[in-house]
Amino acid sequence: MSHQNLQDSLFLRAAFSKSTERPPVWMMRQAGRFMPEYWEIKNKYSFLEMCKTPEIAADVTMLPVDLLDIDAAILFSDILVTAEAMGGDLSFTQGIGPRFANPVRNQSDIDNLLTDVDDKLQYVADAIKVIQQRLNGKIPLIGFAGAPFTVMSYLVEGGSSKDFKLTKLMLHNQPEMAHQLLSKIAKVTTDYLNLQIEAGVNAIQIFDSWAMALSWDDYTEFSHRYIQEIISNLNRKDVPVISFCKGSSVFAPLMAQTKPDVISVDWNADLLNIKKSLPQGIAVQGNLDPHILYADKSVIKNRIHKLFERMRGEDGFIFNLGHGIMPDIPFDNVKYAVNVIKEFRY
Ligand code: CP3
Q1: Rounded to the nearest 5°, which phi and psi values hold at 159?
Q2: pLDDT, tens only, 258-280
Q3: Do 133 and 71 contact (CB within 8 A), yes or no?
Q4: Ligand 1: lining residues by beta carbon, under 6 Å
Q5: According to the CATH classification, is domain 29-281 in 3.90.1170.20?
Q6: pLDDT in tens, 52-76
Q7: Which of 16, 73, 134, 231 is deepest in the core (most CB within 10 A)?
């Protein structure tokens, strides 16, 4: 399929709110630890080596394309590579997750962060080119970045957090400093997403995974406005923008103001109600509870069919989970879910 024909793919048609004979399917974290084939690669390299070596990033990106036959591929990388390029001393440890050895806690830490880092992220552009050669027009490739608030939380906490205590303390006690940090991340993220578009991705997704930690007012001031800034500065051409956050059940009306093509919805809300509340022309993506994929196959099938029946007659619907696949979900169940979706016809 040529680039021209990719615009007729199920995924891009749904992203642009055109009708499809069934909802397209991809899943957040579709290239990851629930796959035995992922471990064969992961046992040989560190996670960052995998991200930074275009051939390996392409191999991992292709795993769910070849083994699950999904309708869109997502670049194998991480939302924290922008923060690393800005000067974060990033490592990933099995069982602990990401860690920044030099967390950002005061003004001089913020002043030290770099904002012209396209050169340092060139490996991502290189990976995109290798992946597009491998995909050869079969399905679209989704690029991505973290939203400034979510990336900030890792920089400030120095890693993952349950309560985002230090991050929220900075928002509340030193809002001007927080805004400086968020502005720097937003600038880097805008350049980074434009670099991905230039390199050839067919869609982009912005992940604001931890937005649900924020009140409505704090989300508006510290997250929403930076996502707005990023989206309005993208060279979008024919590349749809998907805005994801945990908390989208609540924040969807604000997310819509940033004019994404698609809003990716967590599993708390009724998807049809969210869709009907949005302006015409904004598609939805979601929103099966990923825990359903642990359940019996009959349950998996029923819940997918229930979601699809609820969305019957709606253009602009991409199937996904409300958040990423957990590492211990049985591969066979994921494969089964994809098959159920691919066999479905409206
Ligand atoms: O979706 C995909 O398959 C594409 C690749 C991808 C990864 N991370 C690979 C990854 C994507 C899109 C991400 C995004 C990401 N990274 C997010 C937003 C999405 C979300 O789930 O909310 C976040 C918050 C991160 C930060 C991050 N990276 C964490 C918290 C961790 C540790 C996770 C854990 O459970 O240990 C990572 C590491 C990571 N990113 C892995 C993968 C496959 C695991 C690395 C390993 O093999 O050890």
Answers
A1: 160, -160
A2: 999 999 999 999 999 999 999 99
A3: no
A4: 28-33, 42, 47, 74, 76, 78-80, 92, 94, 97-98, 144, 160, 207, 209, 323-324
A5: no
A6: 999 999 999 999 999 999 999 999 9
A7: 73
